[in-house]
Design brief:
single chain; about 270 residues; alpha+beta; Diaminopimelate Epimerase, Chain A, domain 1; 2 domains; 18 strands; about 20% helix; globular
């Protein structure tokens, strides 16, 4: 019998919206090369692999090209799978041991709330290639400690209308470019898009981890600790954010769209 694999659309309540992630709940540790091969085969922005350890689930995230240290939508998808597939009781907290430390997820009605670290951006310059690749003037430029640039544009329309030059963006080392603006849409506080061609993802549909930087940025400017962000990619998705000291809460919804099976056994960890 093969290894179950479930595809979930995260940060949405409807299929074929939000950000798709594949989730593979393993019986034990697996070889990193095998996980990378599966992620390349799935060709989604992230594939999540997890197995039970004492009191937690060990969780790793892979793009088609590399392993990443933090991923919001695939964590949301993983929590959804643990509850919906009977790995955890519906009322139980999901606890994940990751490269970014302990992350947790809890149900909040129809929403799932993630507890993530804050990743505030510090004002600074970005390489000309990064700014030129956007083709729109920046209002503010900074970067977080993970090497992702945060760039504010003048309006929601400017963010929506971007058609980046991904080859130029990828010509300088970076871990992604977050572009944002104040929202012009009722019920939404800010909009964003996320580009990461160096990670094998030209544009990520909805990026939970980017909101670890967006939350403190907009909290300072809007004078609020609870906000709603809309990532205005083609698929689109909604992320509710809340400031909590040195942490940030991210709330989203999720829906299962596919259940499958990988043929053959998972590659055991070396």
């Amino acid at each position: 019998m093969g290894q179950p694999l479930i595809q979930v659309d995260a940060f949405t309540d409807r299929p074929f919206r939000g950000n798709p992630a594949a989730v593979c709940v393993l019986p034990g540790p697996a070889d990193a090369g095998w996980m990378q091969s599966v992620a390349r085969e799935m060709n989604l922005s992230e594939t999540a692999f997890l197995h039970r350890e004492e009191g937690v689930f060990r969780l790793r995230w892979f793009t088609p090209s590399v392993e990443v240290a933090l991923c919001g939508h695939a964590t949301l998808a993983s929590a959804h799978v643990l509850w919906s597939e009977g790995h955890l009781a519906p009322s139980a907290q999901a606890r994940f041991a990751t490269l970014s430390g302990l992350l947790t997820a809890e149900r909040r009605g129809d929403w799932i709330e993630l507890d993530f670290p804050l990743e505030p951006a510090v004002a600074g310059d970005a390489p000309a290639e990064i700014l030129d690749s956007l083709g729109a003037p920046a209002v503010w430029v900074g970067a977080d400690r993970n090497g992702r640039y945060l760039i504010e544009l003048a309006s929601e329309a400017a963010v929506r209308d971007l058609a980046p030059d991904f080859a130029r963006m990828a010509s300088r080392p970076n871990h992604g470019v977050i572009v944002t603006a104040r929202a012009g849409t009722p019920g939404v506080d800010f909009v964003s898009r996320f580009f990461a061609p160096n990670l094998g993802i030209d544009e990520d549909p909805v990026t939970g981890s980017a909101h670890c930087a967006l939350a403190p940025y907009w909290a300072e400017r809007l004078g609020r600790t609870e906000m709603t962000g809309h990532q205005v990619s083609a698929r689109g998705g909604v992320v509710r954010v809340g400031m909590a000291g040195e942490r940030v809460t991210l709330q989203g919804q999720a829906v299962t769209v596919l259940r499958g099976e990988l043929t053959g056994a998972a590659g055991a960890a070396a």
